[in-house]
TrEMBL record:
Transmembrane parts of this sequence: 119-141, 153-176, 197-218, 251-270, 277-296, 416-436, 456-482, 502-520, 556-574, 580-602, 614-638
Name of this protein: Solute carrier family 12 member 7b
Compartments, as annotated in UniProt: Cell membrane
Gene Ontology cellular component list: plasma membrane; synapse
Catalysed conversion reaction: K(+)(in) + chloride(in) = K(+)(out) + chloride(out)
């Protein structure tokens, strides 16, 4: 929950009043808002009131003692100023504005807030006591003792109380590690484990508190209809088998009415609920005192509550007064009311139940007393199925071999199946409520002192009450009465009330008001907790519940709480609702322990709790106990609760607002990352684990927007969220002058990465020139063993039109540097035509042209692409090139076998490239390329001089062409080779025909200027032309073409020729991914 801080005006040394806020602050408060992003970099930071505050602008330092730091004063305050402000900050409690009186004057007057004055006893101990002691103690503890026996009941109590005590120790450590504002456990968990865990556990705690409200309301109605005014029941059962359903229906009707009334009370006057809390607490304490008084009294004067037994079976004495079959009235033997329940009629000759005839009636004392020795009989458990008769094995019993047919007679029977784990789930809500003190942390005078002492003392006190209660109930009350859940054998009295002194009504009335008060407290606290989660903004769809009335009351949250609470009311059974809320509370307690353990083990610098009596082993033990109790009590409820928490966690992670709260999970992630990085650097990854770890080099436009977002789409499709992705960019200049542009560029790239669902890191470098910046990225991006092994760039399609040759030179240097660094390289041509992540390509092919072996990159990349749904329908085809001396049939068989061992499905085709003579088209291409190269060598001249030089070269070539043409006209036997556009096309097509074969020497004779061409360039151009011809012929309709990327020349003088070769190689193809291996095997046939 956000923390509110209010600055109180104080006098400084000059007597002037200093305000802690700007003059335009309407409400006069300076609020710590963790949601603010003052830096604009998208990372939420906590806004400190002590640094960069508006008041610092007013503190102009005029002294000379600290002149060395005078330039820092506008950003960093003096220590004396910091301490002065800190001393005058006041921590406000949640909802404090409701109790404040607004100033009548408009303007900047401040609201006066009283400093919290609650101590340990009133602020922590008593609220915890009130929340822990409640409905289970009064309505179910005696039944648990009778069913589980004293020993197993002590185990249940010990297990649950140990869990809460260990949780309290962990909570105390967290609560004393700095100021804990109102919000309690939610605030502690979210700030310790992060927004995902905080939101998930906070909502679980909210659901637990809401279902606790339902449980308390059901307890209230059970007391009302069973023990106070049973005649108020709307549904009545004529047959015994219908009694349970009638009771549940009555609980639903009256529970809904009670919930509505309580919701109205909370909505109208929550202040009165808080004021009545002491009254409800007094009822609880008075009831417990009366129980102990009754126990003491039973030692010498047990109360008279006889239980009527038929044989060894317990009878419900709601419909008869005398435990007799017959009685003598006026010397006549007549039947009793009990006779009529077991016989056809009142006549003594009537047909009666066999068991009734064969067994005698016995009266035993329900409360034999402390000195009776009944404790030895109540030591052991008596579990049984639904409908099992409550029996006293010490009494004689004749017949009744099949008691199933007798359960509809007025016997006391089990209303549910009983077993140890069920009782754990039912009992656990009686130890919840330990967070009451931490929830009031804003109202405490010294929260860091009061929360540990008050909470641990409250748990110790309630644990003593429960343990002593288990022993004393087992020592004072007859076993059959203990197992009588609703007191049917003692005329419908509350079982625990029969033991109390001076009257059972003390317990009945006290427990009734106690349950009412607890229900109101739950309906008051749960909406505020939901409002706090909603206002934190971590769960977007809950934001509507952050709003409320003008005074801050959570109206919408109250409506949702009442709706969820109604679900518990409709369940209607207290024994069915208790395990549900147990799950949610146990989930919350488990993560409190986890938070403490994580913080302790990480040893984060900020982890300095004042409470020193904690240890990470205790926290882990508490966490293990919570998890164990969850599955012990109800494994299916535990799975459902964990599933709900997991769904909320993933939702917040996927859609929730980003928060940086300095949580322990982030620290845990950093430690785990550090450990993993150190392990990764020990050895390079094995071939089986190799995957492309990409460094994506993006270009930005003049507005620092991403030029080619489809490059990120390709990255997402290639990676599918796996492995490392670093998206890099270089800005030209100095960092000091371009810091803002660098941050803006980083934000734009991150935004585009989010749009394209590219998971990875962004790295923007500012360098004096682009060449050095890219080099730095290639060398230093990544960390330790988590470095990139592949560089992905887009093909510079406009390199010919660029006036600055540095653009394509940078591209060639990238190729050289990745090769030197033994990194692979991917170059995407026409990247803007690549599919987005939302597209779905139909049936088509991904064609791989495997010319030279690159370590298997060409095989691996199509496989990775096809894992993504964009390329999932595409088939893979592999083409390889055979020379004249190769056996193409054997090559195809070998390649098919190789792919089989690689477990790759692909069509294989071997393309034969014959050693054709070099065509005139190739020579002309080479000539144009070298002429362009000669022109580009003049780049050191001015633009005008470069244009003049280009014109001279053009004129010279024109003259040479004209002279040659004249000579050809003079000799009619010579071939016309004037290279017009039409003739050039005709010659190109002619030379591509299989039978076209012109002698090389003849061509030289035709074009004498070709003799001066570099023969190496001619051969390279020939390869590019022929390979392009084959690829276009086979793969022009493919969705994607992958082919080997030739390396740049060792001599840098031919760089511009290299670009021309690649341009010719890619001509006529749409989507192309050129691949250059990193010098290592990346795919293997071995498992």
């Amino acid at each position: 929950m956000p923390t509110n801080f209010t600055v109180v005006p104080v006098k400084d040394g000059t007597g002037k009043t200093r305000e802690g806020n700007d003059e335009d602050d309407v409400d006069g408060s300076n609020v710590l808002r963790e949601e603010e992003d003052p830096t604009g970099d998208g990372v939420p930071k906590e806004n400190s009131p002590f640094i960069n505050s508006a008041e610092n602008d007013k503190n102009n330092y005029d002294g000379t003692n600290m002149a060395l730091f005078e330039e820092e004063m506008d950003r960093h305050p003096m220590v004396s100023s910091l301490l002065d402000k800190l001393a005058n900050y006041t921590n406000l409690s949640q909802g404090a504005q409701e109790h404040e009186e607004a100033d009548e004057e408009e303007g900047t007057k401040k609201k006066t807030v009283k400093s919290p004055q609650m101590g340990t006893f009133m602020g922590v101990y008593l609220p915890c006591l009130q929340n822990i002691l409640g409905v289970i103690l009064f309505l179910r503890l005696t039944w648990i003792v009778g069913t589980a026996g004293i020993l197993e009941s002590l185990a249940i109590v010990g297990l649950c109380c140990s869990c809460t005590m260990l949780t309290a120790i962990s909570m105390s450590a967290i609560a004393t590690n700095g100021v804990v504002p109102a919000g309690g456990s939610y605030y502690m968990i979210s700030r310790s484990l992060g927004p995902e865990f905080g939101g998930a556990v906070g909502l679980c705690f909210y659901l637990g508190t809401t279902f606790a409200g339902a449980m308390y309301i059901l307890g209230t109605i059970e007391i009302l209809l069973t023990y106070i005014v049973p005649q108020a029941a709307i549904f009545t059962a004529e047959r015994k088998e219908d009694q349970l359903n009638a009771l549940l229906n009555n609980m639903r009707i009256y529970g809904t009415i009670c919930l509505s009334l309580m919701a109205v009370v909370v909505f109208v006057g929550v202040k009165y609920v808080n004021k009545l809390a002491l009254v409800f607490l007094a009822c609880v304490i008075l009831s417990i005192i009366s129980i102990y008084a009754g126990v003491i009294k039973s030692g010498f004067d047990p109360p008279d509550f006889p239980v009527c037994m038929l044989g060894n079976r317990t009878l419900q004495n709601l419909q008869f007064d005398k435990c007799l079959k017959t009685e003598i009235i006026n010397n006549n033997t007549v039947s009793t009311q009990l006779w009529r329940l077991f016989c056809d009629g009142p006549e003594l000759s009537s047909t009666c139940n066999e068991y009734f005839v064969n067994n005698n009636l016995t009266l035993i004392q329900g409360i034999p007393g402390l000195a009776s020795g009944v404790i030895s009989e109540n030591m052991w458990s008596v579990y049984g199925p639904l409908g099992m008769l409550v029996e006293n094995k010490r009494l004689p019993s004749v017949g009744g071999i099949d008691p199933a047919k007798d359960i509809y007679l007025p016997y006391v029977v089990n209303d549910i199946s009983t077993f140890f784990t069920l009782l754990v789930g039912i009992y656990f809500p009686s130890v919840t409520g330990i967070m009451a003190g931490s929830n009031r942390s804003g109202d405490l005078k010294d929260a860091q002192k009061s929360i540990p002492i008050g909470t641990i003392l409250a748990i110790a006190t309630t644990s003593f009450i429960y343990v002593s209660g288990v022993i004393l109930f087992g020592a004072c009350i007859e076993g059959v009465l203990l197992r009588d859940k609703f007191g049917d054998s003692v005329k419908g009295n509350l079982v625990i009330g029969t033991l109390s002194w001076p009257s059972p009504w003390v317990i009945v009335i006290g427990s009734f008001f106690s349950c009412c008060g607890a229900g109101l407290q739950s309906l008051t606290g749960a909406p505020r907790l939901l409002q706090a989660i909603a206002r934190d903004g971590i769960v977007p769809f809950l934001q509507v519940f952050g709003h409320g009335k003008a005074n801050g009351e959570p109206t919408w949250a109250l409506l949702l709480t009442a709706g969820i609470c109604e679900i518990g009311i409709l369940i209607a059974s207290l024994d069915a609702v208790a395990p549900i809320l147990s799950m949610f509370f146990l989930m919350c307690y488990m993560f409190v322990n986890l938070a403490c353990a994580v913080q302790t083990l990480l040893r984060t610098p900020n982890w300095r709790p004042r409470f020193k009596y904690y240890h990470w082993t205790l926290s882990f033990l508490g966490m293990s106990l919570c998890l164990s109790i969850m599955f012990i009590s109800s494994w299916y409820y535990a799975i459902i609760a964990m599933g709900i928490a997991g769904c909320i966690y993933k939702y917040i992670e996927y859609r929730g607002a980003e928060k940086e709260w300095g949580d322990g999970i982030r620290g845990l992630s950093l430690n785990a990352a550090r450990y993993a990085l150190i392990r990764l650097e020990e050895a390079p990854p094995h071939t089986k684990n190799w995957r492309p770890q990409l460094l994506v080099l993006l270009n930005l436009d003049s507005d620092l927007g991403v030029k080619h977002p489809r490059l990120l789409s390709l990255t997402t499709q290639l990676k599918a969220g796996k492995g490392l992705t670093i998206v890099g960019n270089v800005l030209q200049g100095t960092y000091l002058s371009h810091e803002a542009e660098a941050k803006k560029a980083e934000q734009n790239i991150k935004s585009m990465m989010a749009t394209e669902r590219t998971k990875g890191f962004c790295h923007v470098v500012v360098s004096s020139n682009l060449r050095d910046g890219i080099s730095h990225l290639i060398q230093s991006a990544g960390l330790g063993g988590m470095k990139h092994n592949t560089v992905l760039v887009g093909w510079p399609g406009t390199w010919k039109q660029s006036e600055d040759p540095q653009s394509w030179r940078n591209f060639i240097e990238i190729v050289r540097e990745t090769t030197a660094a033994h990194q692979a390289m991917l170059v995407a041509k026409n990247v803007d035509s690549f599919p987005t992540c939302q597209d779905r390509l139909g049936e088509g092919t991904i064609d791989v042209w495997w010319v030279v072996h690159d370590g298997g990159m060409l095989m691996l990349l199509p496989f990775l692409l096809r894992q993504h749904k964009v390329w999932g329908m595409c088939k893979m085809r592999i083409f390889t090139v055979a020379q004249m001396d190769d056996n193409s049939i054997q090559m195809k068989k070998d390649l098919q076998m190789f792919l089989y061992h690689l477990r790759l499905d692909a069509e294989v085709e071997v393309v034969e490239m014959h050693d054709n003579d070099i065509s005139a088209f190739t020579y002309e291409k080479t000539l144009v390329m070298e002429q362009r190269s000669q022109m580009l060598k003049q780049m050191h001249l001015s633009r005008t001089e470069r244009e003049r030089e280009a014109q001279l070269i053009h004129d010279k070539n024109t003259t040479a062409h004209t002279t040659m043409n004249n000579k050809e006209e003079a000799g009619p036997d010579r071939v016309h080779m004037t290279w017009t556009k039409d003739k050039l096309s005709t010659e190109r097509n002619r030379n591509r025909e299989p039978n076209a074969n012109v002698a090389v020497r003849d061509l030289f004779n035709m074009k004498p200027e070709w003799e001066s061409l570099n023969q190496s360039n001619v051969r390279r151009m020939h390869t590019a032309v022929k390979l392009n011809e084959v690829v276009v012929n086979k793969s022009q309709g493919a969705h994607l073409v992958l082919l080997n990327m030739p390396g740049p020349p060792r001599n840098r003088g031919g760089d511009e020729n290299y670009m021309e070769f690649l341009e010719v190689l890619l001509e006529g193809l749409n989507r192309v991914l050129m691949v250059r291996g990193g010098g290592r095997e990346v795919i293997t046939i071995y498992s």
